[in-house]
Specification:
about 500 residues, alpha+beta, 3 domains, five-stranded mixed β-barrel, 20 strands, globular
Length: about 500
């Protein structure tokens, strides 16, 4: 919607971005402008018919026209969200600062010098720490070289001196503000503060058009002579059912969406126990290799994946065949083409992982979640890469077969949104030590689990938080036309 008259969003202001009571919006695409223009023409013709003929057809045409025009007017909250550059694919990283994408930059194996053993040992807490500063340790002959944030390297003659320098740099990093550490797509980033504080206007142009559409519809029906209305006795009942279903569906679907809007996304470095939201990058819990996926048992390279945390693959087969049948009406034999699509087999898997938002990481117990959204199809093939790895589905009707294998998955380094309960790890599973040299940090002692609570349906979703959000709408604008249609359908029974 690049051609919309979008609100100019100042990212560093707390001023109201949308009016409180009333907001008018116009169509944004050439297609919606075409439908809007058609609605205007149809409305004009309906009013002309009503004025010249005095019949109810004009009101019915006007009702259809007003509904079309309202459908073409976008929600002002949608336009406001686009002012924050949220039109990009929310399944991918888009806003800088971007997270480090290589495993070597995730300090999974950062070491510390142990005087007792006289050797560099892996620090089990390093992977939970904030991303900055970036520290590289290299052996250089009899000495050690430490590079911090890609700047000039420092050389030390003993490992103890190098270790002390690394500790000092990590402690200095503790003074960084969380805003300097958060990834750019994190909803707690300052650029989104005004967005999350915004409230939708009570009334919109879509609301006005749809209210008038309902009034025209009810008026048009009531203007029909009673004798003719008796032949349409089913119509009020149909509208009553449609309105009731619409009210119920709108209420419950919107309530789920508001769970994400109303729940403050935690900054992992400062997270505490209880239900809440997390957002960050998918990282492994250890350096151990992940389970390798061979889709449908096929070992061909293009069918093999080794960087997936969770996946689901499916194999479908569509058979097309021609058959003869006897047409009783024409009393002749004819031929027709039939198609049948059937699920053949599939597989799924989910392993635990770490979610990291730049300020710190937390353990995610994937096996406890019932709702895991793996996103759109990641990979698809129509021909097996290795025919010796398993049988194809056989034709049941002697026809031709079309095969489809598809895969959806959560990959390392991708963004992930989590609604979960944060609870303590079992005592024996808590890594020993203190993250970032600050005793108040507890995120390395917690785990995110899929335990529901009232108004908190836990889930894991691929992508940023904006992938699970839809634009807000006031209850008046959302339910007003449906409730009026519900009342109008009751009036039609009179």
């Amino acid at each position: 919607m690049a051609d919309c008259d979008e609100p100019q969003c100042d990212l560093d202001t707390d001023e109201r971005l949308l009016p409180k009571w009333w907001s008018w919006t116009w169509p944004c695409h050439w297609f919606s402008w075409g439908v809007f223009g058609l609605g205007i023409a149809l409305l004009g013709f309906g009013i002309f018919t009503l004025l010249t003929g005095g019949t109810s057809e004009g009101l019915i045409l006007g009702s259809i026209a007003l509904f079309m025009m309202g459908w073409c007017c976008p929600n002002p909250f949608v336009q406001m969200m686009e002012g924050f550059n949220l039109s990009a694919d929310p399944r991918r990283w888009s806003a800088p600062p971007l997270p480090p994408m290589k495993k070597s930059d995730w300090h999974m194996d950062r070491k510390y010098w142990d005087e007792k053993f006289g050797d560099w040992l892996p620090n089990p807490l390093a992977k939970f720490e904030q991303d900055k500063p970036e520290i590289k340790l290299l052996a250089d002959g009899d000495g050690w070289v430490v590079n911090c944030d890609g700047k000039d390297s420092e050389r030390f003659s003993t490992p103890k001196e190098a270790d002390t320098y690394i500790e000092q740099k990590i402690k200095s990093g503790e003074r960084l503000n969380a805003q300097e550490l958060l990834f750019g797509d994190h909803p707690r980033h300052n650029r989104y503060r005004a967005l999350y504080n915004a409230t939708p206007p009570q009334f919109t142009s879509r609301f006005l058009f749809h209210i008038l559409s309902v009034l025209f519809l009810v008026g048009g029906y009531m203007a029909i002579p009673r004798e003719s209305r008796e032949m349409m006795a089913y119509f009020p009942s149909f509208l009553l059912v449609v309105a009731a279903i619409g009210v119920i569906y709108s209420h419950f679907s919107y309530r789920k969406n508001m769970e994400a809007w109303d729940t403050i996304t935690s900054i992992i470095k400062y997270v505490d126990g209880g239900h809440g939201e997390l957002f960050g990058q998918i990282r492994p819990m250890s350096n151990s290799p992940l389970k390798i996926l061979h889709v449908d048992g096929c070992t061909a390279p293009s069918w093999t994946f080794d960087d997936l945390i969770a996946w689901s693959w499916n194999y479908y087969c569509r058979e097309t065949w021609t058959e003869r049948y006897y047409d009783r009406e024409s009393k002749t034999w004819k031929t027709r083409t039939r198609t049948e699509t059937r699920y053949v087999r599939g597989g799924s898997y989910a392993s635990d992982f770490m979610v990291h938002d730049g300020t710190g990481g937390m353990f995610v117990k994937t096996s406890t979640f019932e709702r895991i959204d793996l996103g759109d199809t990641l990979w698809e093939r129509n021909r097996r890469g290795d025919k010796t790895c398993g049988p194809y589905d056989s034709a049941r009707h002697g026809g031709t077969l079309n095969h489809t294998w598809s895969l959806s998955a959560l990959k390392l380094s991708e963004p992930v949104y989590i609604m979960a309960r944060m609870k303590s790890l079992p005592h024996d599973d808590i890594p020993r030590g203190t993250v970032g040299h600050n005793a108040t940090r507890v995120h390395h002692t917690l785990q995110a689990v899929g335990e529901d609570a009232p108004r908190r349906d836990t889930r894991i979703s691929k992508g940023t938080e904006f992938a699970v959000l839809s634009a807000k709408n006031s209850s008046t604008s959302r339910l007003g036309p449906l409730i009026l249609l519900l009342l109008g359908s009751l009036v039609m029974f009179l």
